[in-house]
Automatic annotation (TrEMBL):
Keywords: ATP-binding, Kinase, Nucleotide-binding, Phosphoprotein, Transferase, Two-component regulatory system
PANTHER family with a match to the protein in the record: PHOSPHATE REGULON SENSOR PROTEIN PHOR
GO BP: any one term: cellular response to phosphate starvation
Entry's EC annotation: 2.7.13.3
Principal place of residence: membrane
Protein name: histidine kinase
Entry keyword annotation includes Transport: no
Domain Histidine kinase: 238-430
Organism per entry: Alicyclobacillus acidocaldarius subsp. acidocaldarius (strain ATCC 27009 / DSM 446 / BCRC 14685 / JCM 5260 / KCTC 1825 / NBRC 15652 / NCIMB 11725 / NRRL B-14509 / 104-IA) (Bacillus acidocaldarius)
Subcellular location: Membrane
Amino acid sequence: MFRRMYITVASLLIVSTGLLLVLVGLAVYHELTNDVARDAEQAMAEAVPAVERALTESVYRDGLGPPVRDDLGNTIFYYAVGPAAVAHSPHAPVPFSVVHGEAVLKHFVTFTYDNEPYRLYTVVVPDPTMAPALIQTSYQGSVDGLSARGLLATGALKAAVRGIAGSPALTPTRSTVVLYMYCLITQERSMLTHTLHLMEFIGGAGFLLAIAGDLVLARRLVQPAFQTWAAYQEAVLELSHELQTPIATASAMLANRDVPEEAANEIRRELDRASKMISDMLYLSKLRSGLVDDPPEPVAVSDLTLEIAERYQPIARAEGIELRGQAEEGLYVYTNQGEWERLVSTLLKNVIDHAKRPSTAVWSLYRQGQWVVLTVENDVAPTAGERPRAPERGVGLQIVERLVHRMRGRLRIDADEDRFFVELHVPLLRPH
């Protein structure tokens, strides 16, 4: 019992610690990712004037503008789509068609091209050249050629832009330029990946240390309950021994005193019952504590149940009770012989103690699917001078319930003033 309690408490502590570490790690990583992305986006947004100046100062030789870097040192690649022509950065790693297809006006967008991650920012700015700076040339190549060629003829450019663009907001006017700015974020992603691996390593090491601490803490938490239970067990044991002493003394006094035989027999019967009840209480206490040491094993319960019933038949017949039943052959249960014998004996003893005289009690052992079913049924003896009532569930039936629980089965008891019925199911074990 306490082993299960310790395992449960330790498991709860370990799981809660692990979940806490994971949640904190995810929150920190998410915040770090947002901060890094926010700083990079701010740097890119602040680089818009630099790109405008570069476009103004450039002579647009072959359609190339001067290189631009943001405050973080990242190279800003760009396409400037004006009313008359297009300019782009000295190096354009991504075709214009791909950039334009990913663009969302005044929004930062991340995309992947050629297995490389990029961040894109699209904004509409006033035309920094006001027409004279943009030199018209003939249209060369297809729309993808915008990434490798510099200037397009005005009519061809407008047609190409309208053919590619799905949003009118991304179409330049006479006085505006659509500026597509993008940068490579491989280094940013690598830094975040390295940080994630470092957090996983540190978190794993911390989790292992937390497991050790949780195990120690769980032991300290369970220790008071264990000490309390040990004190209870010791008290029950001492009480049982103390109660056995007056019972033995009373039995000895009956043998040495001149007591009528009928009264002596009644007293002895009650003393035996009290002694048996004390033994049952001790056994029930062991079952509840899980301190029963007998290991489980395959038990042929068919023959064993028949033997127990045969032993109780003469005792029941002497009380005016006919005990009848049958057992299906070849049934096995994963328990131990002592526990199954205690279970069946307790049920049959309960019949003898509470059945109506004369009457017939019936028991049955059979297979039902993947279960072994044991049923016991008897008529209830009426209480003289009192209103008939159903028999109470005493220590013996509590032992039966605990034994069935240990066998991973289930127990059902139906009782009223006329009939008492017990049905238990335990898992069937197939012999090998």
